Amino acid sequence: MNLSKLILFCFISLIFSNAFSQSLLWEITGKNLSKPSYLYGTVHIKDKRAFEFNDSVFVKLNACDQFAMELIETPELMAAIEKEIMLPEGETLDQLFTKKELEKVNEAFKASTGIDVSVVNSMKPIAVMMMIMEIKEQHDMDMIVDDYLYEYALKNNIPTKSLEGLEAQLPLFEFYTPKVVMKYINDLDKADAWMESMIQAYQKADLKKLDELQWSDETHFSMLEEILIKRNYSMQDSMEVFMKEGATFFAVGAGHLPGKEGLIQLLKNDGYQVEPIIAKHTQTTISLNDWYLLEDKEDNYSVEFPGKSESRKEKTAQGMEFVMHGYEPEESAYDDNYFYAATCIPLAEEPTEWNEEFVEDLLAKSQASVIDRVQGNLLNTRRLNLNGTQGIEYEVGFLEGAARIKVRQYLANEKMYMIQVISMKMTPNNANMNRFLDSFKFLK
Fold first, then answer.
1. Could you read off the pLDDT of 211-267 as tens digits, one per residue?
2. Cα–Cα distance between 112 and 342 in angstroms, integer?
3. Which end of the chain is more exposed for a tag (fewer CB within 10 A), N or C?
4. Are strands 301-305 and 441-442 parallel, antiparallel or unpaired?
5. CA-to-CA distance for 402 and 115, rounded, in angstroms?
6. For residue 383, how many C-alpha atoms fall within 13 Å in the half-sphere facing its CB?
7. b (16+ CB within 10 A) / e for 235-264
8. Does the global pTM surpass 0.85?
9. Half-sphere exposure in the Cβ direction for 123 (13 Å, CA)
10. Does domain 292-442 have CATH number 3.40.50.10190?
């Protein structure tokens, strides 16, 4: 889970929609096509409200010979992004902003990510803006809509393709100048309200409203010709090639659909019939992750992992054995987190009196031990009570702010129960993290 992947997902999420009929799903026929293809407008966020699919989406996707989206992540793509996101050698962010501007940038960056902007000092201004935007968005789901559909296609053995290469989106890297970033930071509340309006319009499949909002955004108006219109013509060319190969389900940012130079009209101009498929009702998402329930009957607890966990024996500093259950997602997995773990550690000494003061002291010492172990800094903390069992939750930033660990600890049965998630993408409270932590239960 690296920074470039986060930035790619963030900046693509700027592109939404507009059109004439209230549908996100469109059927493409005519011009000697042997079978219909389908165009679906997505929104590149992890907010669960964007996952209320038209009841025909999965039916049509299953009927297609292949699936195509704007850009499929590959190792080569990630390497190219890592190169493009860096400033030229010898340049740094603090050279691009005035001292007063940099103070304001750091304030906003730290408020969102919990780390100092100096961590990304060698990166282009787009890194600052996109990381702030990523953190501020909802993270109810563990992947964006496009990747969800892509994973669904893979799971159902439907071949996948990219509509374009990274070069089509490279103008974004230069568009976010210090001036653009300052405009965004100076009006964060307005930007949040704009995003909320976009999501609500998307829920209603109101493409006309989405189009109005898209072109009303002062921050990005000047780049829409480059990053939206020009790409529409390029993607149309790719779509025609793919449709000749077989029925294709296209998933693209909904902002590419409408308008005189939107994909719908461009396809019509080229002789295709493009008709909306109106939803009779919405359909909830289909689970793509295989979650596994782990029951540790010896230590009397259960927890759900987003994959098959592995167990190994460890020892405390005092030489006491305990079992750690852990899961590390594969690099190819769409997961905001790097590692999940659950342990139950026996107390080094039996308490002479099990009272509130003892519990407070032990939880505080355990928290301090974790902070010291990762050489991090405490970001936040709160007390917990799980059906009468006292506990604590806290987050620690480490690796110079490039990672976080979120921990929940409970004291029961003269043992310390600890569940923790390490995130390398600085996306607190993401869907997988919350589900894992909330799944912890005592068996009896």
1. 888 888 666 666 777 788 899 999 999 999 999 999 999 999 999 998 889 999 999
2. 28
3. C
4. antiparallel
5. 8
6. 9
7. bbebbbebbeeebbbbbbbbbbbbbebbbb
8. no
9. 19
10. no
